[in-house]
């Protein structure tokens, strides 16, 4: 059986969400597809190659997903194959998507009857198994799909489309979060108001998205990016990308932890994405032949 799950973007509120402020996150129409087939052994195949259980290597999320699934449903062995539209390690939620799609495919192949809530709970455990920490946001969005205002988990819808530019630089989310915390501790009188301003942008941003008001979203992108720059998570390369996009009359901001990773833009991007994509689902094709990727 084949299942798929979406990647995600943080549209507003990265970093400030760590301090209890609002964030706006959305599932995107880039998906990860996983095929699971009962077998005598565990075999995992992706663009990284083929392995058995590989808990500490390239297939860590898939390996932990199989192990967590086998705690609720007997798995003798299984062949898992992955095809993903989501660029890895770029802040677009590829790890959560592969985890959730694996659980969805196992659920279908072994007729386990798990609902979305149970798939999310397992995916949340897998995130902690592999990363040690994690807010659970990525597995949540990938499982349920759609667009959400956090922390209250209010669902909303937007028809707006965006584009993504990968800066080509990599960063570690935990390290970026630590740097912001240090800055806040050293300059609370400066940084706390910045986090409050990000909060206000996220609240206005959700409303503007809901109204499909691209002009307002565009203004808020510019403000948010300036504030992200103020808390030290932009880079010279990201600043150059943002300047290029703005010169062409569009807006851009970091999406995710920054220090590299992806920039979300209202135009001029490399990859077009629409928001509010569907969460985990079983695909009705049984082999890759009819998949469009
Ligand atoms: O690395 P990403 O794209 O999942 O974004 C992390 C978002 C932060 O707000 C920086 C951290 C967090 O846990 O919310």
Automatic annotation (TrEMBL):
Broad class of where this protein is predominantly found: cytoplasm
EC number(s) on file: 2.7.1.36
Required cofactor(s): Mg(2+)
Gene Ontology terms: cellular component: cytosol
Localization (cell): Cytoplasm
Pathway: Isoprenoid biosynthesis; isopentenyl diphosphate biosynthesis via mevalonate pathway; isopentenyl diphosphate from (R)-mevalonate: step 1/3
UniProt KW keywords: ATP-binding, Cytoplasm, Isoprene biosynthesis, Kinase, Lipid biosynthesis, Lipid metabolism, Magnesium, Nucleotide-binding, Transferase
Catalytic activity, as annotated: (R)-mevalonate + ATP = (R)-5-phosphomevalonate + ADP + H(+)
Binding-site residues, ATP: 87-97
The name this protein goes by in its record: Mevalonate kinase
Gene that encodes the chain: mvk
